[in-house]
Amino acid sequence: MKKWIALAAISVAVAGCGGSSSSSSNNGGGDTPSTPEPNTPQSELLSSSRGGHVWHDYCQGKSDSAELPVDPRTLVQNGVNQGRNVVFNIDWQSCQSNDAQRPQTCGQYRDLYEKGKLVAQGFGEPGTSHMFSQDTHVSASFTDPATLADFGEGSMFTIPADAYNNLWQTWTGYVLSPSIPQRPENYDELIAQRYGTTLGEDRNPYPLPGEDPNQTNGGSGQLPIAFTQLREPDGTWTGQIGVKLCSFCHDGQITSDSSSINEVFGGAGMIGDFTVAFRDFAAAAQNPAFGLLSGLLTVSPLRGVGAIDQFQIGFLGFNGGTFEEYTNDKIIFSQSIGVIKSPPWWNMGHRVQKFHGAILPMDSSRIDMAAYTPLFFAQTGEVSEMEEWLDEASYAFQIWAESLKAPVYPGDIDTALAEQGAILFHNKNLWAPSLNNPVPEPETPGNGSCASCHGVHSEYFAKDPNFLSDPRLEGIAANLVNAEIVQSDPVYADAQRSLLEPDGSAIPAVANVPMLNCGLGDFSSTENNYPVLLAPPLYGTWAAAPYLHNGSVPNVWQLLGDESERPDIWKRKSTPAPEGLEGRVVMGFDTNFERAYDQEKMGWKYDELDCVQDAAQTLPLLACNPIDESLPTLQDLLGEVYKQVGLLWNLPIDELHSIPLTDQQIENRKVYNTNVYSQGNEGHQFTNVLTDVERRAIIEYLKTL
């Protein structure tokens, strides 16, 4: 009874703040907040699918012949849900190239799932995909001229096991220590820590020094999930190690003393640093291909984030080989998108369009294979053959990725508080007149709640026709929001606009880029060409810190509050080094839930840095001004250049002289400086009207998703 008294009290408070009514005359919600009755089952109010896809859930326990239900995302068309509390203003677009493979039964779905799992994971399995190499098992080596004859067929992005075993010799802090250096006993764990990847539960072997992989079933070493040993079609191990490049950005790790959770596939990642790995690979294997992609041209200036939507590079490396594409002025004269974080894959099954800005249709699967497609394939092979592989591999991968679920929160949850948060999340009108929200109200606000943008995440509210026209739309987010309302760092949204013609139309070169065969998303057709951001579903939010599209805000407490609460320069906590190796090895971000996670504020713990006192990490004058933080730095001046010539952002001016990187340089890559181009931590200030009590309740609710 006490629980329902509390719920009744919070519903009265919500109603007093405007409830589901909006201050705008075009409000679509009802006048009375949807408040649960006292006999409402807790499972309805706090239910969560944790993301994934309806087909994956439906086929559990079903026969292969069972026919699949409708994909709910395909219902988001032609003004569906208009006039309701939740706003959908973009449509689902099916991609024709996927139609031939689209499953009709659970059996067909399972076949595609397994094929996609091989593409995505495939640890040590024949036919798995790897970095810019499709699924080839052939390697080309700059130290063996005979293999270079295979250019176009062999991979330039592999490293021999012998070189992998000697990577420790490139670690400056380790080899320069007073003690005689030798290969560390816990080498595999140190590799995973240094490069920001995870030692998974599944076997992923490589041969240790002196081992023959074909006499030891691949070897007795364990590769992190970002790498795989290549095998020939007959199962023969090659001793060559390829890179599962997608894993560096999208996979993560969370360990817990009370849970079996470990590797987190398809999360927001935020722990990987392939630049460090590739610098080591370039040195140990004498491979300039790795050096190029981590030196003169990089997409990752920091650990955990990068310019993974840098389409200028795509115009160069993945075009159809036409003169028009190579002379596309947008390759040079367009704005760099700078730093962004990867959206969690476990939300893909509830998204209508891709990326932070509705750049492509969600069904545009070819782009998902960008990291595995051979560079300059149009010049070294048949475009039609590559497109055939792209369609077969990418759609299967999409099926697998959309099936992923967010991990269950491993800590304690205050159920009564979470229920209050569920009501606030779906009912609290942030633009109620009494709140005097200084942020402009959206043109179509719905009921002005969190759910109006991010979608319904509760079975109870999904059944309410004031929220959704069809309960099957639960969890779907399809609200494209004017960037002036979000007010986060403007670089990403502005840069995507810079890739278009002045009238907002696509540049002619786009027509021949195989990755963009399904057309562009709705970012390209906004009124007056205004920049936009796409509100995502919020499943697994607790496991996707830090926040905003660029990962600039450490926790949800700060995200929901005033910008002044957010740190200026900060560094996430690192894993403690093994005993005896303190100061000799670089450790990754600490992913232990009990030790490193702030359960009250919902985010990973961090240290705030001072421009002067922490000068070795903050790089005064380059990235901050020690005299007056309001005065410009070199980065401010460079930012003006990056706005005009995007690819210049990819030149790491403070790291070019070091291959491999020094330990201090690697540590500096963990520092998030919000003064640097594209890394601002402003925005999302419309939630600053929430009280501290309301913030706590919403955070508790988000733990259940």
Automatic annotation (TrEMBL):
Q: Which InterPro entries match?
A: Cyt_c-like_dom, Cyt_c-like_dom_sf, Cytochrome_c_Peroxidase/MauG
Q: Which UniProt keywords apply?
A: Heme, Iron, Metal-binding
Where the record annotates domain Cytochrome c, the positions are 416-705
- Region Disordered: start-end pairs: 19-49, 199-220
Keyword Iron annotated: yes
**Which segments show compositional bias classed as Polar residues?**
40-49
One Pfam family named in its UniProt record: RoxA-like_Cyt-c
Q: Which domain of life is it from?
A: Bacteria
What molecular functions are annotated in GO for this chain? cytochrome-c peroxidase activity; electron transfer activity; heme binding; metal ion binding
Is Heme there in the keyword field?
Answer: yes
- Which protein are we looking at? Cytochrome c domain-containing protein
Protein source organism: Spongiibacter nanhainus
Source organism phylogeny: Bacteria, Pseudomonadati, Pseudomonadota, Gammaproteobacteria, Cellvibrionales
